[in-house]
Amino acid sequence: MDTWNFFYTCLVSLWLHRIYIYSVMAFGISLWIAIQFFTTKAKRKDENSNGNLVSSEVVEGKLVNGYATLQPKEVCVAGVKIFYGSQTGTAKRFAKDLAEAVTCLNLPVEVINMGDYDPDDCLAEETTSRNICVFLVATYTDGQPTESAAWFCKWLEETANDFRFGKMYLKGLRYAVFGLGNSVYVDHYNTVGRNIDRWLWMLSARRIMTRAEGDCNVVQSKHGSIEADFEAWKSKFLSCLQALCRGEKKPCSGKCKKGKCKSQGKQSKEGSNHERGAPEFENTEAEELFETTSEEEADAEEIGGTDSVVDVEDLGKIMSHVKKAKRERELEDGNAGMSLLGETSGRKEAGERREMITAALRDALTKQGYKLIGSHSGVKLCRWTKSMLRGRGGCYKHTFYGIESHRCMEATPSLACANKCVFCWRHHTNPVGTEWRWKMDQPEMILREALENHQNMIKEFKGVTGVRAERFEEAMSAKHCALSLVGEPIMYPDINRFLRLLHQRGISSFLVTNAQFPEEIRNLEPVTQLYVSVDASTKESLKRIDRPLFKDFWQRFLDSLKALSEKQQRTVYRLTLVKAWNVDELKAYADLVSLGKPDFIEVKGVTYCGDSSASSLTMANVPWHEEVVHFVQELTQLLPDYGIACEHEHSNCLLIAHKKFKINGDWCTWIDYERFQELVKAHVDSGGTQTFTATDYTARTPHWALFGSSQRGFDPLDVRYQRRGKVRDVSGC
To answer: DSSP secondary-structure letter at 648?
Structure first.
């Protein structure tokens, strides 16, 4: 009975306190469920972060028929293949630099010259190789690929537009593109990189990041130089590559807008949000360094492709988005100052302008022997200055015009040029541009440091065997300045002030321009002798030889010659003959002479300055001296007012002079430098009202300098030096 009472009492107690018991049980069950949930989630997260590493051979267990088996994890990135198409070697250098960085990530890497690669046989293999393909491609003349990349680009373009291959031909290939270009070529800027990116995308290849574009134009480069542009892109690429190796980032699906790249995961999330009416989500880690999508591709992507269906109700939204994007592009272009033909630059104040000479350019020019001055000028010792110091003869200007070569300073106030001539003796290491967009140094400082550097270089010859003491002393005081070192001196905004400073010091001026700045020629104050380079006589050959930056280069060329005809002081056409390029254009040259009416015409065989990847010029293009003589004789037959006056065989050069300089039967091509200084001083003192002409400061040409003399232009006061066992060089200076 007692047992039953106890049991009954317990049951009643439990029933009366049942609410508390239920609460404890519910709390315990909830706590267990929560622990299980968070434990499972942490375990899955740990598996995802540790199970997708590519470089380590991680395995996971699976049950097959009740038994545990080990299966290798899928490899995300097997290696990197770097393709480069280079003309001057920059893309090749970048490829090697990138390869070293990738090697540090313990990934296999291969650097491939596009010229040695057959895309028809090999490129399709990359769709299954799990390699990342990187394309470093430069844009060459007229937006064409470099010689080594020409076949690759031709094949890729044809494949992208050939229906037989299909639009899925390269599906599975993952790639990144870095283009090398120069924004001064506004119509062809980074065309090759953009085309390769578009053609790969058309064949369903996948970007791992948006295309980047390096700019050789330091003014417009986003990071100050193409090297800095590459370094910025490289760091982004390596970060993206590491993320791919960890399996954290998917390749770009091609939906890139405004230079921003979104992963597939985020895109799918965006798609679901969009369907639910959620606002558009943009990747906060998007790349904002480069504007990369081509216009054609962007247009297609804006509307989802040509095959996509667009609801009529969405057209207004789409058009609004397109207009907004267009306004943003125009605003960005305006801020970047992309106009090269006189539009206002984004950096209006001088303090915001960049220096013309970058660190890399400074190193390259210094190695070539330049003494750089300030941020855009330079001076260098001419080899004829060294020659005349030793009494071994002067340059052709000594023969033609009577300058003292050992007292001539070769300099330039502007290292930039508006052409990229095939025979450029500086191998295109100098910057290019169509107008002044850099910081500007004062002409007083430029001239002062130019003279100091020139004197210091002369001092290095003190005590050198063969140097004549009297000429060494004379050389310490410069008497002539050849503004023809490199670049386009007339681009310097203060060129007139610089010339006045030269004349105030009693230094004569020989200024050379490439006939692309007619207004600057008209506004130029008197110089001792003004040169215009006439490298070709037709539009086609001029474009092929000079490779000018201006789109209206031919009209500028003709206008420059007309402007030259208006000058009252000595003017010269400088013709550079390139065999198989421009030696057969006699009649056209004669027409140009009648247009510019120069006082003199220098005809010189092109000088071969060694192999250069920037030019196809070879020794086969250098005419023999006899060929130059023959050309000059034929040309003068078409010019009744001109005759052959002088010859300098060693420079492979002849001088044609207007017959007004043949006075009393004697050629008077030499210059009375003291008389010129008197005339130019009177001109300045009178405020420009007192003028003078070329015939006012002439001097008689000595017999040894005349064409047909036995000396053939070599000064008999000097001794010709010939190295033993070396064939006489008549290719020029």
So the answer is: E
Residue 256 lies in a domain: no
Report how far residue 183's alpha carbon sits from residue 190's, in angstroms, rounded to the nearest whole number: 8
CATH number at residue 531: 3.20.20.70
Round to whole Å and give the CA distance between 492 and 376: 9
Residue 485 in domain: yes
Domain count, the chain: 2
- Owner of token pair 């023969």: 399
CA distance 210 to 179: 11
Q: What residues contact residue 434 under an 8 Å CB cut-off, 6+ apart?
A: 184, 340, 341, 418, 549, 550
- The model's pLDDT over 461-488, given as tens digits with 9 standing for 90+, comes to 888 888 999 999 999 999 999 998 778 8
The CA distance from 48 to 511, in Å, is: 70
Q: Per the domain annotation, does 579 fall within a domain? A: yes
Interval 614-662: pLDDT, tens: 455 566 678 888 989 999 999 999 999 999 999 999 889 999 999 999 9
**One-letter amino acid identity for 111?**
V
Q: pTM of the prediction? A: 0.60
Q: Are 450 and 414 in contact (CB under 8 A)?
A: no
| Range from 80-84, 593-597, 611-615, 620-624 carrying the lowest mean pLDDT | 611-615
Domain residues for 502? Answer: 396-420+477-702
Domain boundary among 188, 221, 246: 246
Q: How far apart are CA 553 and CA 539, in angstroms?
A: 9
DSSP output for 660-701:
GGEETTEE--EE-HHHHHHHHHHHHHTTT-S---GGGGEEPP
- Residue 583: CB partners within 8 Å, gap ≥ 6? 577, 623, 627, 631
Within-domain flag for 241: yes
Distance CA 38, CA 436 (A): 65
pLDDT of residue 7: 76
Given a cut of 80, whether residue 77 has pLDDT beyond it is yes
- The residue that leads in pLDDT, 333 or 720, is 720
